[in-house]
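A reminder from the course coordinator: this example appears on the midterm review sheet, so study it carefully.

Given structure:
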C-alpha cells in the first residue's frame, strides 16, 4: 500500500481516535478543575515564572530533543513489538487528550484569548512533527521498518528540524505571549 492509500484508508479512524482523546481531555480538565485546582494554579504560576526567564537556545534544544526524542523512540520501539497497533491508537488518543486538556486549560484561564495561547504552543514545530508521526505510523503499520538509509536519514533530519524550530521559535513565542 502506498503512503497516499494508507492516509486515505486510515484517516477517518485516526481522526476519531484523536477526537475521542481531545474531548476526553476537555472533560478531564473540567472534572479535575476543583480537585486539582491547586496543582493547576501551580502549573499556571510555573508557566508565568518560566516565561520571565531568559532561555538559552542550546539548553532549550537539548530539553526539546530529550522530551520529543523519548516519545519518538518509544513509538519506534513499540513498532517492533506485538502491541504496535494498540500503541499507535493509544498514542493518537493521548495526543488528543493532551490537546483537549491544554485548550480547555487555556480557555478557562484566559477566555477566548486562550485559543491563541493554545495555537501558539504548537507553532511551528507541529507542522513537521505531525507529518513525521503519520509517516512513522505508515512505516510501522505497513511493516516497512526495513533499514532504508534515505528514509532513516530523512526521518531523523525532519525530527531534528522540528526540535530546532521548537527551541528557536516556539519557546520565545510562548514566552512573548505570556509576557504580553
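Designed residues:
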Amino acid at each position: 500500500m502506498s503512503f497516499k492509500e494508507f492516509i486515505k484508508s486510515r484517516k477517518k479512524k485516526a481522526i476519531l481516535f484523536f477526537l475521542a482523546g481531545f474531548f476526553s481531555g476537555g472533560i478531564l480538565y473540567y472534572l479535575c478543575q476543583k480537585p486539582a485546582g491547586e496543582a493547576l494554579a501551580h502549573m499556571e504560576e510555573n508557566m508565568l515564572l518560566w516565561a520571565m526567564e531568559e532561555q538559552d537556545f542550546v539548553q532549550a534544544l537539548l530539553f526539546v530533543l530529550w522530551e520529543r526524542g523519548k516519545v519518538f523512540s518509544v513509538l519506534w520501539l513499540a513498532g517492533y513489538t506485538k502491541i504496535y497497533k494498540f500503541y499507535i491508537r493509544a498514542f493518537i488518543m493521548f495526543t488528543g487528550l493532551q490537546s483537549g486538556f491544554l485548550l480547555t486549560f487555556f480557555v478557562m484561564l484566559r477566555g477566548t484569548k486562550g485559543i491563541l495561547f493554545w495555537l501558539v504552543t504548537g507553532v511551528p514545530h507541529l507542522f513537521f512533527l505531525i507529518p513525521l508521526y503519520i509517516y512513522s505510523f505508515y512505516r510501522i503499520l505497513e511493516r516497512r521498518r526495513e533499514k532504508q538509509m534515505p528514509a532513516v536519514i530523512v526521518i531523523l533530519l525532519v525530527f531534528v528540524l522540528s526540535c530546532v524550530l521548537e527551541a528557536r521559535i516556539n519557546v520565545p513565542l510562548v514566552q512573548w505571549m505570556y509576557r504580553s
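Residues 149-179 form the longest helix (31 residues). Residues 107 and 113 are 7 Å apart (CA to CA).
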